[in-house]
Amino acid sequence: MKKFINNLPKAELHLHIEGTFEPALMFEIAKRNKIEIPYKSVEEIEKAYHFSCLQDFLDIYYQGASVLTKEQDFYDLTYSYLQKCSEQNVRHTEIMFDPQTHTDRGITFETVINGISRACDDAEEKLGVTSLLIMSYLRHLSEEDAFKTLKQSLPFKDKITAIGLDSSEKGNPPSKFKNVYESSVKEGYIPLAHAGEEGPPEYVWEALDILKIKRIDHGNNALQDPKLVNEINKRDMALTVCPLSNTALKVVDDLKDHPLKKMMDLGLKVTVNSDDPAYFGGQVNQNYIDIQKALNLSKDDLYQLARNSFQYSLLNNEKKQRYLSELDKYYFEMSS
Ligand code: ADE
Ligand code: ZN
Fold first, then answer.
1. How many CA atoms, within 13 angstroms, populate the side-chain half-sphere of residue 244?
2. pLDDT for 203-213, tens place per residue?
3. Ligand 1 pocket, 17 CB below 6 A?
4. Predicted local distance difference test score (pLDDT) of residue 336
5. Which of 110, 156, 160, 302 has the fewest CB atoms within 10 Å, counting from its CB?
6. CB of 166 sitting under 6 A from ligand 1
7. Is 188 left (phi over 0), alpha (psi -120 to 50) or beta?
8. CB of 198 closer than 6 A to ligand 1?
9. Of the candidates 155, 209, 223, 157, which has an alpha carbon nearest to the alpha carbon of residue 181?
């Protein structure tokens, strides 16, 4: 199974670039930027990565991101993740980045986007991994702040495909961002959002009906409302599920209790993703490996999950079909 998963062509659709910041690279960048971090060793960092909820994690995640100051830092962070994609047979990835985490510290939008997008261009050329960018608004900040970010993004519109909504979910419902989503869509961005990770099913309804999202990040709590499950199926929307993130943030107590298979059985279009791999103990392939073992998934289930990852990506039809053919060829050869 492990070999089958490692070689399975796949896409990753839920990934925060700031969440790929491995301790070794964090030390290297902190040192060259002469920034103090509150850890002396990789072991100390790893010890600190135990979380009781989303907020607990976010406090540490924003602190880690604060050593990124130069365009080259964003380049190195992104290229390092894309190299891991190449090693795992992730053929395509849709990368979220949080501009406000950086612009609030005085780093320009241009620094962030140029570093990330240059790494994406190089990875496509050198590693054959394709990527699209999702600009995520921080939901604990105001809608006015999100509008500022939207405005800053406009000169770089050609580099950004979609918008997302992340950070502290509880108390920050999707409706708070109604107007900025409307304006972002008018600018050509595809609307996506985290919903139902810690928040109630009502937040998923709002993300669907008010923000008019095209894909749901997480969506676990949608299962509490059968009408909502029907609606998601009716709209043919995918859920970007993150098994190891869910156990690390106590959204799910144990992987054996994870609802992923139940979601599939209900007809939901599920994909498997790593969310913040440097913090949650595994890259995307580890997520596939661990959830396969915990839920005893078949090769056909894994094929379906990989198929969804291309099918529900934001790629154009021609590119989707190219990747789907590659996947089908692999699966056919492995099954015959
Ligand atoms: N930012 C990074 N990871 C996140 C998650 N799992 N939920 C919300 N915001 C995030
Ligand atoms: Zn996320």
1. 24
2. 999 999 999 99
3. no
4. 75
5. 110
6. yes
7. left
8. no
9. 209
